[in-house]
Amino acid sequence: MVAQSLFKWRHFLPKIIVLNVQWYCRYPLSYRDLEEMMQERGVEVDHSTIQRWVLSYAPELDKRVRLHLNQTNDS
After folding, report:
1. Residue 11 belongs to a domain
2. What is the pLDDT of residues 6-27, one digit of tens each?
3. Of 42, 41, 22, 20, which Cα lies nearest the Cα of 32?
4. Residue 16 in contact with residue 45, Cβ under 8 Å?
5. Do the beta carbons of residue 8 and residue 2 sit within 8 Å?
């Protein structure tokens, strides 16, 4: 239910938004690279929209992923 409210009122499917944010954070891709990759898959999205997604959703995804990561040793 929380994930539903996180993406409420968005024009694109949550799967598309999360995929773009993950790709941007994980690989050395520009917003325009992601725009081109989405066009190849039949999804018309502007690079500035992807930038807004990254700015708003990357911190939330980071917070949720860190809960599942193993803690490292301090030494």
Report:
1. yes
2. 777 778 988 999 999 999 999 9
3. 20
4. yes
5. no
Task: Examine residue 51 and state whether it is found in any structural domain, yes or no.
Answer: yes
Q: Could you tell me if 17 and 43 are in contact, meaning their C-beta atoms sit under 8 angstroms apart?
A: no
Answer yes or no: is 43 within a domain: yes
How many residues comprise the chain? 75
Range of the domain at 41: 2-62
Task: Render pLDDT for 41-75 as a digit per residue (tens, 0 to 9).
Answer: 999 999 999 999 999 999 988 888 888 888 777 66
What is the phi/psi pair of residue 12, to 5°?
-100, 160
Task: Work out how many domains the chain is built from and give that number.
Answer: 1
Exposure string of 35-72, with b = 16+ CB inside 10 Å and e = fewer, is: beebeeeeeebeeebbbebbeebeeeeeeeeeeeeeee
Judge whether 71 lies within some domain.
no
